[in-house]
């Protein structure tokens, strides 16, 4: 049954590939002549085709939409890898927002009741069967608790995991095939992209993980005028059901309503940047799926605007070392200290230690100098990061998943900020925060906090030291007994091995030729006998 389902899915994928002629996009990549010649064996390439006015990016986007939710989600994530994709394809894939039709409300209700273990009429005072919103992984219904709070109920689409497993298996196969056939495909690191996607999509299937992310983010911004995070009702949360406070706000892309309520657009754009830097550097915990569909603006104080965030399935974090190196990289970039940027990349391990600093510095300068010819407010922070990763990749920079999520988030924030307020100077907004954060890291208060953390480790270190000294004073105390003490019952097998050794040696000695072709039985007996005798 699984084989039949996988074959049927492959046939469906093939029909979409033929319909949108995705094979033309693949054949445009550099590949060996024999592989290009073999494309003429594909039967549909001999059929007459209709002229299409669609660009290659539009054809790819429509194909992903036609293949369903999993491929749509993959296209959304792929669109963030602007360091890997041609610009025209990246722009088209960025248009892939949540265009997934909802599934049957009766099925959604049954899933919720099965997860909660009670009818929705008993759990909720009101439950709207018509979905409030629908996405690639889940859909949302409005409801009201018996205690009076308005909530939303998020439920994962049914039977999604088997479909995901099949689709990801085919995506891996296509990516591996492309990388074997084309240098350009290898440069795009398609297998790594699919692997990142698989981890992300499986994480999104667990709504308890999303609930935990939301709770952490709410705790980080408790009482903040910058960002509001809805409350999670943990008693009603399950792996496939999430119940959260219902929020009321203006979609951040609804410029007409924002203007109607006289929102301070400059302050709104700047606060978006401040939220990003606060999440990344203060908390090391950032919302990594901040596309416009997940962001709203509060209607309470338009002159003092506050963001509202939803959908916390994807979050990112940085280690203290990554935070430090990233902040110092950004500061060095805008001071045009390219040698320091190169050295920081090597020190952080983002590029190999044997990289020549001078060559790396020259490559970074070549890419970045034209960018800095523009006024500072017109410099795209996100595109600068993209270009940096492109240069570093030429020097065998390893893929850093946390930096990919960071880049994606920064591109979303910057694009949104420029849309809200075109004159937004991202660097002028972020530089004071970066400088303040770097000063605080070296402040006496922070040094004292670090010292306290080290003191707390002393009992553990003392225990480790004592255990090490005991081992040094009696090095054989914890050794396992010699293997031969427990191997008496294996003597019949060892005897068989000895017989094979003797027989093989006898055959080899009596053979007229030591050619492997002629005397292979003796060599086989010798090999088998040696393996049986010496193996543990």
Automatic annotation (TrEMBL):
EC number: 2.7.-.-
Entry binding sites for ATP: 132-140, 154
Pathway entry: Cofactor biosynthesis; ubiquinone biosynthesis [regulation]
UniProt keyword annotations, A-Z: ATP-binding, Cell inner membrane, Cell membrane, Kinase, Membrane, Nucleotide-binding, Transferase, Transmembrane, Transmembrane helix, Ubiquinone, Ubiquinone biosynthesis
Domain ABC1 atypical kinase-like, first and last residues per copy: 96-344
GO molecular function list: ATP binding; protein kinase activity
Active site residues according to the UniProt entry: 289
Protein name: Probable protein kinase UbiB
Organism expressing this protein natively: Stutzerimonas zhaodongensis
Primary gene name: ubiB
């Amino acid at each position: 049954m699984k084989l039949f389902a996988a074959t049927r899915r492959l046939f469906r994928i093939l029909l979409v590939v033929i319909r949108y002629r995705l094979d033309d996009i693949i054949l445009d990549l550099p590949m060996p002549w024999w592989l290009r010649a073999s494309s003429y064996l594909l039967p549909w390439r001999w059929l007459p085709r209709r002229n299409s006015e669609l660009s290659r990016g539009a054809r790819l986007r429509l194909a992903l939409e036609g293949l369903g939710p999993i491929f749509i989600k993959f296209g959304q994530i792929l669109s963030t890898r602007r360091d890997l994709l041609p610009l025209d394809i990246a722009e088209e894939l960025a248009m892939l927002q949540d265009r997934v039709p909802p599934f049957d409300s009766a099925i959604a209700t049954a899933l919720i009741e099965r997860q909660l273990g009670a009818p929705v009429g008993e759990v909720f005072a009101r439950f709207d069967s018509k979905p409030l919103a629908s996405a690639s992984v889940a859909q949302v219904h409005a409801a009201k608790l018996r205690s009076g709070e308005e909530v939303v109920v998020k439920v994962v689409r049914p039977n999604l995991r088997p479909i995901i497993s099949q689709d990801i298996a085919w995506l891996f196969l296509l990516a591996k095939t492309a990388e074997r056939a084309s240098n350009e495909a290898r440069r795009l690191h398609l297998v790594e992209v699919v692997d990142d996607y698989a981890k992300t999509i499986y994480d999104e299937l667990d709504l308890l993980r999303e609930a935990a992310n939301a709770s952490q983010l709410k705790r980080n911004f408790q009482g903040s005028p910058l960002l509001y995070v809805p409350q999670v009702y943990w008693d009603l949360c399950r792996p496939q059901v999430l119940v959260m406070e219902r929020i009321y706000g203006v979609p951040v892309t609804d410029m007409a309503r924002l203007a109607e309520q006289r929102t301070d657009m400059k302050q709104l754009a700047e606060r978006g940047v401040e939220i990003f830097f606060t999440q990344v550097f203060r908390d090391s915990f950032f919302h990594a799926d901040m596309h416009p569909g997940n962001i709203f603006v509060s209607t309470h104080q338009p002159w003092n605007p506050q963001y509202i965030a939803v959908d916390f399935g994807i979050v990112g974090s940085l280690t203290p070392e990554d935070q430090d190196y990233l902040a110092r990289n950004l500061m060095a970039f805008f001071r045009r200290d390219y040698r320091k940027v190169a050295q920081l990349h090597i020190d952080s391990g983002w590029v190999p230690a044997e990289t020549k600093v001078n060559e790396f510095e020259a490559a970074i300068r070549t890419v970045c100098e034209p960018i800095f010819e523009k006024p500072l407010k017109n410099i795209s922070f996100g595109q600068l990061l993209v270009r940096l990763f492109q240069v570093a990749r030429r020097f065998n920079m390893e893929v850093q998943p946390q930096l990919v999520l960071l880049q994606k988030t920064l591109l979303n924030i910057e694009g949104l900020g420029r849309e809200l307020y075109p004159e937004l100077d991202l660097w002028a907004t972020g530089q004071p925060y970066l400088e303040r954060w770097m000063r605080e890291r070296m402040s006496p208060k922070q040094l004292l906090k670090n010292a306290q953390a080290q003191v707390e480790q002393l009992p553990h270190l003392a225990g480790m030291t004592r255990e090490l000294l005991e081992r040094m004073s009696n090095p054989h105390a914890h050794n396992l007994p010699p293997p031969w003490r427990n191997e008496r019952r294996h003597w019949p097998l060892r005897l068989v091995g000895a017989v094979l050794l003797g027989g093989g040696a006898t055959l080899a000695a009596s053979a007229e030729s030591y050619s492997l072709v002629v005397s292979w039985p003796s060599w086989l007996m010798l090999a088998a006998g040696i393996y049986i005798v010496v193996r543990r």
